[in-house]
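Residues determine shape. Take a concrete instance:
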Amino acid sequence: MHGLSKRLRNGHVEINTVDKCVEIKASTGSILDKIFYSELKPSDWGTIYEKHVAQWLFKEGYDVELRGLNKGFLDNGIDIIATKENQQVYAQCKY
């Protein structure tokens, strides 16, 4: 899907299996955007997975840099850089 990364950067991502869509929510919980499964290519799920991993790392207290979502193929194989205290984690997410 064209523009998926930009849409995912706008908020917190949740999978809604009832409505068969990916919801992008504001910090208040209001829905900013919905992307229905039918709009997604199989490869788009890797980008969504990357966002989920980044959200989990953030929830665990890491500062998170989303290289894959921000740089696309120019991320040099590192989708996420997560830093916490003096620990740094490099992640490449695969769907």
